[in-house]
Amino acid sequence: MEFIVDFPGGLKVDARFDDFTVSSDQPANNGGDNSAPSPFLIFLASIGNCAGFYVLSFCKKHDLPVEGVRVIERTSTNPTTHMVESIDIEIQVPPSFPAKYHDALVRAADLCKVKQHLEKPPSFKTYTKVVN
After folding, report:
1. Are residues 54 and 71 in the same domain?
2. What is the C-alpha to C-alpha distance for residues 74 and 76, in angstroms, rounded to an integer?
3. What predicted TM-score, i.e. pTM, was given to this entire model?
4. How many Å from the N-terminal Cα to the C-terminal Cα in the chain?
5. Range of the domain at 57
6. Sign of CA dihedral 49, 54, 59, 60
7. Which of 23, 77, 90, 102 could bond 36 through an S-S bridge, CB–CB 3.0 to 4.6 Å?
């Protein structure tokens, strides 16, 4: 898969792929216009979105209600390195949600491909290429 990354102005960066564009910007205190999330926040949001998709898919497959079901992602950052040290994924369910499916919801969320790629990261190669 190929992503085309362009610079539409200011500190904005757009990634285009298929028929989609994911736009990012920097916060105002970092010189941006704060018109879109920063790339790192998009990355973090993709973890919760992915876990949420697997939770939703599990519920739909088992004809379970999704009303009142919510995924909360919390990050903890090292104050010295400013790197995320841990990510908690909490799946909130209403009291009426069948308890026998609680563990299965966790297993479903753990199928998240974003999470799996973080646990076994790909290799990276960055280079320049002169084009006409």
Report:
1. yes
2. 7
3. 0.90
4. 23
5. 38-122
6. positive
7. 23
